[in-house]
Amino acid sequence: MLILLHFAIGLVLGLGLVIAGMADPAKVLNFLDLAAIPAGGWDPSLAFVLAGAVAVTALGYRLVLRRPRPLFDTRFHLPTATDLDTRILLGPAIFGIGWGLAGFCPGPALTALTTGGAPAWLFLAAMFAGMAGARWLAARPAASLAPVSPGR
Amino acid sequence: MIATAFTPAASLLGGALIGAAAVALMAATGRIAGISGIAARLLPPYADAGLGGRLAFVLGIVLAPLVAGLVTGTVPVPRIEASLPLLALAGLLVGFGAVWGNGCTSGHGVCGLARLSRRSLVATAVFMATAFATVLATRHLL
C-alpha cells in the first residue's frame, strides 16, 4: 500500500516535470540563457514552474505540518541544519555548473531514462557515480575539507 | 541551440503538480521530496528501511513520460544538445554537487524555499547563479 503510494507520488511528480517542460533539457538551457534576452531567444517558462511548485508546496506544507504527525510515520523528518557552512555553498555551485552544461537536474534525468536513449543513460550513470563519490567522501573520517552536516 | 516556445500555462500547471507531489509525500511520510536525496539513497549504504518506497517513488518518475504518452498519444522526448563527454562530466557534477550540498532543484529549490529555509535559499541562489554563468560561458563566451 505504502509502496503503491510512493509510486503514485513519483508518477505525479514526473508528470509535473513533463507537462512543465522541465523534462526537456533544451527548454532548461534556454531558460538559463539570460544573454539571449535581447535577441528574443530566452524562454522564461521555468520561472513559472518554480512559482507554481513553490506556491503549492508552501500552502500545502502549512496545512500538513499543523497535523501532529504524517499519515504513515511517527514524526515529520524535517531538515534541522541552519548553519551556512562551506558545503551548502560548494555543493550547489558544482551542481549548477553541471546543470548548466547539459540542462539536466536529477528529476528530468530520471524521466529521460525511458525516452532519452543512450545520452540520457550516460548522464544518469555519471550522476549516480558522482552521488556515490560525494557520499563516500562525506563518510570518510578524514573529510576535513568542511564540517560534515547531517544528510537530508 | 534549439528554439523553444514560451509555455506559461503548462509550466505553471506542471509546477503545481510537482508541488502537489511534494505536499503528498510530506503528508504521507513526513519527508522532503528531494529527488537527489531519494535517488542517492538507492545506493548502499542504507541508513533506514525505506528502500522499497524510494525505489517505487523513483520508478514513478521514470515511467511518467510513458504514462503521458499513453494519455496524449505522443511520448514527450527530451531534446539533448550536449555531447557525450559533456553529458558524462555534467552528470558527475550534478550528482556530486547535489549530495555535497544536501539537495537539488526539488529539495532546495521547491521544498526548501516553500519552508523558507535559509540554507535552501542560499543553495538555490548559488546553483542558479553558477548555472546562468555556465550557459553564458558555453553559449556566448567560449
From TrEMBL, chain A:
It comes from the Bacteria. Pfam families: DUF6691. Keywords: Membrane, Transmembrane, Transmembrane helix. InterPro entries: DUF6691. The chain crosses the membrane at residues 44-65, 86-109, 121-138. This is YeeE/YedE family protein.
Automatic annotation (TrEMBL), chain B:
It holds the Pfam family Sulf_transp. It is a multi-pass membrane protein. The chain crosses the membrane at residues 12-34, 55-76, 82-100, 121-141. Its main location: membrane. It is found in: Cell inner membrane. It comes from the Bacteria. Keywords: Cell inner membrane, Cell membrane, Membrane, Transmembrane, Transmembrane helix, Transport. Belongs to the TsuA/YedE (TC 9.B.102) family. This is YeeE/YedE family protein. It comes from Falsiroseomonas selenitidurans.
